[in-house]
């Protein structure tokens, strides 16, 4: 019998997906600045880019998956330059996708904690709404695949977590950890999981408090997941 059951989110919980997007957006800004010969004077360069990014995403039917050429054009406008050539825009967009293809870094304590839990007999399930090939690739790159018993992909609603709860059998405790309150915490808690909210890197600090009381606990390091399992140190 498993000594517990952990459902862990992947993006921005196991690894820092936001950082990859931030790097790619900053790369766009840098190249637009170089192309138009003007720089933003905003000190928080990411916030400068994100104000346009959020604005486009809000208006575009594809939301955050809008075509990045729109961000390039918005930044060109914002820097008060005439339109760039199509060739230049294509180059900037291509390098954006190059940066975006880079592997996200693991968040602190992730591998050691999953190993500790796995050694202690906890069954570990990765649950995500992301793309399967990308997720498997990241698990493989970071050598987590052997520690994880399954990858479950689907829309994270109450039914999704009910299924996982059923699957846990009589394993106890049943814990869910993630960085999104509406996807990882609220529906998991409704299904009966003990929930750990692990905020991601780029969320404004006031949002950390907002609704965080829905979680059973807010954790600052992935290593804190261990505390939810009342196990002796397996080492
Ligand atoms: Mg996430």
Explain what the structure shows:
The protein is of the alpha/beta class and 235 residues long. The protein folds into two domains: 5-16 and 105-228, Rossmann fold; 18-100, no CATH class. The chain contains nine helices and six strands; from the N terminus they run E-H-H-H-H-H-E-H-E-H-E-H-E-H-E. The chain has a six-stranded parallel sheet, sandwiched between helices. Helix 6 links the parallel strand 2 and strand 3. Helix 1 (17-36) crosses helix 3 (69-78), helix 1 packs antiparallel against helix 4 and helix 2 (45-59) packs across helix 3. The relative contact order is 0.19. The mean pLDDT is 91. Bound molecules: magnesium ion (MG). Magnesium ion (MG) is lined by residues 9, 11-13, 178-180.
Quick tags:
235 residues, elongated, six-stranded parallel sheet, binds magnesium ion, 2 domains, Rossmann fold, alpha/beta, 9 helices, 45% helix
Indicate the structural class. Answer: alpha/beta
CATH architecture tag of the largest domain: 3-Layer(aba) Sandwich
Q: Could you describe the largest sheet, including whether it forms a barrel?
A: 6 strands, parallel
Domain count, please report it: 2
Q: List unreliable stretches of 5+ residues.
A: none
Q: What sort of overall outline do the alpha carbons produce when their principal axes are compared?
A: elongated
Instruction: Round the Cα radius of gyration to an integer and report it.
Output: 20 Å
What is the CATH H-level superfamily of the largest domain?
HAD superfamily/HAD-like
Count of extended strands: 6
Q: The CATH topology of the largest domain is what?
A: Rossmann fold
Averaged pLDDT = 91
Strand order of the largest sheet: 3-2-1-4-5-6
Strand portion, in percent? 5-15%
Are any ligands bound, and if so which? magnesium ion
Q: What sequence of helices (H) and strands (E) makes up the elements?
A: EHHHHHEHEHEHEHE
What is the CATH C level class of the largest domain, in words? Alpha Beta
Measured as a percent range, the helix fraction is 40-55%
- Alpha-carbon distance between the two ends: 20 Å
Per DSSP, the total helix count is 9
């Amino acid at each position: 019998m498993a000594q517990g059951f952990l459902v862990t989110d992947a993006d921005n919980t196991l690894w820092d997906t936001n950082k990859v997007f931030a790097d790619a957006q900053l790369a766009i800004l840098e190249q637009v600045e170089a192309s138009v010969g003007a720089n933003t004077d905003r000190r928080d360069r990411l916030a400068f880019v994100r104000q346009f990014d959020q604005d486009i995403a809000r208006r575009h039917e594809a939301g955050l998956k809008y075509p990045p050429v729109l961000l390039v054009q918005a930044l060109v406008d914002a820097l008060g330059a005439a339109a760039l050539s199509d060739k230049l825009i294509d180059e900037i967009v291509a390098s954006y996708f190059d940066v975006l293809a880079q592997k996200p870094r693991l968040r602190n304590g992730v591998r050691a904690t999953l190993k500790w839990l796995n050694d202690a007999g906890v069954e570990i399930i990765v649950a995500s709404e992301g793309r399967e090939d990308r997720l498997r690739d990241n698990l493989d790159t970071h050598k987590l695949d052997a520690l994880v018993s399954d990858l479950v992909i689907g829309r994270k609603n109450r039914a999704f977590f009910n299924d996982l709860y059923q699957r846990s059998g009589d394993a106890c405790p049943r814990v869910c950890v993630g960085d999104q309150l509406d996807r990882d915490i609220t529906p998991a808690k409704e299904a009966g999981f003990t929930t750990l909210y692990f905020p991601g890197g780029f969320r404004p600090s006031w949002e950390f408090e907002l609704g965080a009381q829905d979680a059973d606990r807010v954790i600052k390091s992935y290593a804190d997941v261990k505390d939810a399992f009342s196990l002796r140190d397996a080492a």
